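Ticket 4471: requesting a sanity check on a complex prediction with (2R)-2,3-dihydroxypropanoic acid. Repro inputs:
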Amino acid sequence: MPKPVLLLTRKLPEAIEARAARDFDARLNSTDDPWYKDGAEIARRAAACGAAGILCAAGDPMGSATIEALPPSVKIIATFSVGTDHLAIPAATARGITVANTPGVLSFATAECAFTLMLMAARRAGEGERLVRARAWTGWAPTQLMGVTLEGKKLGIAGYGRIGQELAAMARGLRMEIHYHNRNRVPPEVEKGAIFHADAKSFLGAIDVLSMHIPGGEATRKWLNAERLSWLKPGAIIVNTGRGGTVDDVALVTALSSGHIRAAGLDVYDGEPAVHEGYFGLENVALLPHLGSATEETRNAMGHRALDNLDAVLLRGTIARDALK
Ligand code: DGY
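Returned structure tokens:
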């Protein structure tokens, strides 16, 4: 039996490409050639090689036009991401194509990134690093770059899924009080004393630091708009490691410029890799290039999880563990 053809849209960690090449007739993109940016080209390549599976990644244009253009040979699209806002799942389901993601394995790494940004924003770490790097630091001074402590502050987690819960566990180490806003209240053993707010206004008004973990998509577009920003306390800190589209950049730049928001830390951007111009002129925002899951351990775990899903459908004819509806 010939091995099923697997089209990989992106360069993946070495061990993942090796496993893909061992178990499938893998068509790698080991140079990360940018053809993956074009949905029509993904579909064309899938047709040209008779792909049974596609291993794509966050941000690939897997909308309905791409999915409708895929050849009938495609049985499964496994995405190297937990986020699925780049994938038209209903279009895939309508064609009988399984879609699977990589939940769970990146929660700790992404929470670490949110924690990093929270500290960078509170302790002005970006500004300090830029000062030293510019060879402009003239020595310790009693009032230089004073930030605020996170100890005892109220952390508000918007979207209390696996990542939010990992962040809560880390923040308890800083003796922060945890608040959360979520579609549903979670059971007490998951809540572990965190305070649930069904209402966004009561949530935002209660907290000192907001960490955004809201999924992307039209329903949550610009969720953090000017009105919701105004509900935050003066001097609040904002971190976003979820999806860039959930924040209204113009409103956040205005709030950071006026000082209503003390500082922000961003890892994700609306329309990334584009970054809203307004952020570049601000000292009080730390900007990372979507590093949330970027640890060797996590990226390998994501790759193995995606391959497990591909194995299930293409090698064993069973249901993928992470199949989505
Ligand atoms: C995801 O998995 O959705 C991230 O944004 C990429 O790690």
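Notes from triage: The longest strand covers residues 261-266. Leaving this open until the requester confirms.
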